[in-house]
Write a structure and sequence with these properties.
This protein is an alpha/beta fold. The protein has eleven helices and 15 strands. It has two domains: 261 residues, Rossmann fold; 84 residues, Dihydrodipicolinate Reductase, domain 2. The strands form three sheets. It has an eight-stranded mixed sheet, with helices on both faces. Helix 2 packs parallel to helix 6.
């Protein structure tokens, strides 16, 4: 009898930053901003973390994991502090999104080494990183600049995305409008979209209105700015997601590309919903097939695995996550002697190959899941 594969959560969001108080030995889970206020002290003028978490819950987030970093007194936290704190996330079984708010309110951009380390760690956990824009970026040309643009902020990887520009929001501590990084807002919209429409849906468009946002901040200004159609035409093909202001719809997310979403790269993981669906499928199947560790790597096991994974993929098909009029056009599952060599089989290495069509029928993106089975002594 095949064990069923159950879909994992998709929008548990980890935040790393400094707070007034709270545990530092392990990530803490909060399900509302009231929880964050109780456990971590709420908003704090010297930190950006509370503002990002507040925006996350305002925009539809439901569960956040807080990695509290202690800095060096008035000097605040550093990139080194953030990098050193990443391993604490090993203490949680699952997170899907990772946000690192700026190190301080002004002039506190997270460094490239930190973003790259975060993206690499997130990849090892099947998670996706939301990267904030540099504070000084005021124009599309700033973003695309070879030396000070996006390439100076983060290395282009498929499990991350960057958004431009920053946002304007009211600071409840001062009752003044200020400029903030958009990461927490975007993560909340990811969570809201997942809940309402599924992880396979782009967290962008007129449905992706940004709650608690009073405008867009270019170059860190507290005066409202605007991204034009011409700006968007330059940035979107380069894999940069724009935040836009429209008269009817207000402030919305207007792009859904990964950092490898530039047209020139022609990546299979060009789009955020495709990449996140791939992460969801891979992690769900990986977790749902770990029971094979005590089973012999033989045709009877392959048949059980194929049935269980096929049932999971068929559910996605019926939910509208995949393209195609028939299951054969939408997905395939293989686990047999064609996916494994004789050495793999002898060494108990089980390999499952899954193809799914996220954009066009019968145009499959392929992922492979590997498990260790029992090795039978001859």
């Amino acid at each position: 009898m095949s064990a069923p594969v159950t879909g994992v959560a998709t929008s548990i969001t980890a935040f790393i930053g400094t707070a007034l108080h709270g545990p530092t030995d392990a990530p803490g889970s909060v399900n509302s901003f009231i929880d964050f206020e109780r456990l971590y002290g709420g908003l704090w003028a010297q930190s950006t973390l509370g503002y990002a978490v507040r925006q996350f819950f305002l925009n539809g987030g439901s569960q956040a994991l807080i990695v509290r970093v202690e800095g060096d007194g008035a000097g605040g936290i550093t990139d080194a502090d953030i990098i050193a704190s990443l391993p604490r996330l090993r203490q949680v079984d699952l997170f899907n999104l990772l946000c690192i708010p700026p190190l301080k309110r002004r002039g506190g951009d997270v460094g490239k080494e930190t973003w790259d380390a975060a993206v690499a760690y997130a990849r090892s956990r099947s998670a996706f990183v939301i990267v904030d824009p540099a504070e000084h970026w005021a124009t599309a040309e700033d973003v695309l600049n070879a030396s000070t643009g996006v390439a100076s902020v983060v290395t282009a990887k498929d499990n991350a995305a960057i958004y431009f520009p920053r946002i304007l929001a009211s600071d409840p501590l001062t009752e003044a409008v200020d400029s903030f990084a958009p990461g927490g807002t975007i993560a909340g919209i990811f969570a809201r979209t997942d809940l309402q429409r599924g992880v396979w849906t782009a967290p962008a468009g007129i449905q992706a209105a940004m709650a608690g946002v009073l405008g867009l901040s270019l170059g860190g200004s507290t005066n409202a700015g605007k991204i034009t159609d011409a700006d968007n035409a330059k940035l979107n093909p380069a894999g940069i997601n724009c935040l836009r202001s429209f008269p009817v719809y207000g402030d919305v997310v207007w792009g859904a590309r990964t950092l490898q979403g530039a047209d020139a790269l022609a990546s299979s993981w060009k789009y955020i919903p495709v990449r996140r669906l791939g992460l969801y499928i891979g992690d769900s199947i990986d977790r749902g097939t770990r029971w094979v560790v005590f089973e012999p790597n033989a045709p009877s096991l392959w048949a059980q695995i194929t049935l269980g994974v096929s049932n999971f993929m068929h559910t996605l098909f019926t939910q509208g996550a995949l393209k195609g009029a028939t299951p054969a056009e939408a997905y395939f599952v293989q686990c047999d002697s064609s996916t494994m060599t004789q050495d793999d089989i002898a060494n108990g290495i089980l390999i499952i190959e899954i193809g799914f069509a996220p954009v066009r029928p019968a145009e499959f993106v392929i992922i492979r899941v590997m498990q260790q089975t029992s090795v039978q002594n001859s």
